[in-house]
Amino acid sequence: MDEPTLYRYILWGFLVVAALTFPALFFITAPYGRHEAKSWGPTFSNRTGWLVMESPSVLVFFACWYFGGCPTDAASLGFLFLWQLHYVHRAYIFPFRIKSGPKRMPVAIAAFGFAFTSTNAYLNGRWLFSFAGPDRYDSAWFSDPRFFLGAAIFLAGFAINQQADWILLHLRKPGETGYKIPRGGFYRWVSCPNYFGEIIEWLGFAICTWSLPGLAFALWTIANLLPRALSHHRWYREKFPDYPPERKALVPGLF
Ligand code: NDP
Known about the structure:
The chain has helices at residues 3-24, 46-67, 74-92, 94-97, 107-131, 145-169, 193-209, 212-239, and strands at 43-45, 104-106. It has 255 residues and is mostly helical. It has one domain (3-239). The chain has a two-stranded antiparallel sheet. The longest helix has 28 residues, at 212-239. It starts with a helix and ends in a 16-residue tail after the last helix. NADPH dihydro-nicotinamide-adenine-dinucleotide phosphate binds next to helix 6, helix 7 and helix 8. It is a multi-pass membrane protein.
């Protein structure tokens, strides 16, 4: 089987697994962070888990760019910039900013994350820098409204995600491991603005690339983070009797 055929199988498989995972995650909450559980086998530190899970996003996507002939047209460099802006932070800076204390992550969760980010980076990188072909993202794409509208949406989502994570990561004083009610920024409206921002980012990337792999990643992000936001929201309401009643879970004003 040649690589483009294998690629198509992987892409459709990726979409099918997203469609199956979405309903399942309403019943199973991934056991890390506040939803930590002991029954998921061997564990390692949260920090190691994040490094393992997110590194393929940086490395595989970069390898796709490199083995795709290091394209230096404006659109290709734009895709590379947006992707690495998010993932260099997520893989190599975020794990050193978390203050989770002794919290552990199941190796199984990190292994699933590793498989997911490797596949996702391959599907997006290989499409953008090789399989799309030289005419798909030529220099005109850089001035196409889809490119700059999508990039602007991505950057807005990135700003929301960063601000929300910054607020969370500053709630604990040195040595603290408990939870507090986050306030300010988009927390005025929702319990999980970091997830909301992340979803906006990848919807923006899907528009910017106008591609099936970009759309598949955005759908995966929703499938993963919407059920988790609802779990976080329920958890906040149960834990804090004074939790702001008007706050929604994920999307301001809606749900
Ligand atoms: P959480 O919001 O659950 O936690 C983020 C960090 O803040 C953790 O270190 C957590 O500590 C701490 N924290 C959270 N809430 C509180 C609180 N109320 N008081 C004190 N500290 C708090 O996010 P995730 O860990 O699930 O995700 C982290 C980032 O990764 C997010 O930006 C998210 O968007 C992104 N992500 C993206 C995914 C995707 O599919 N693209 C999938 C999963 C995450 P603790 O660990 O102790 O709970």
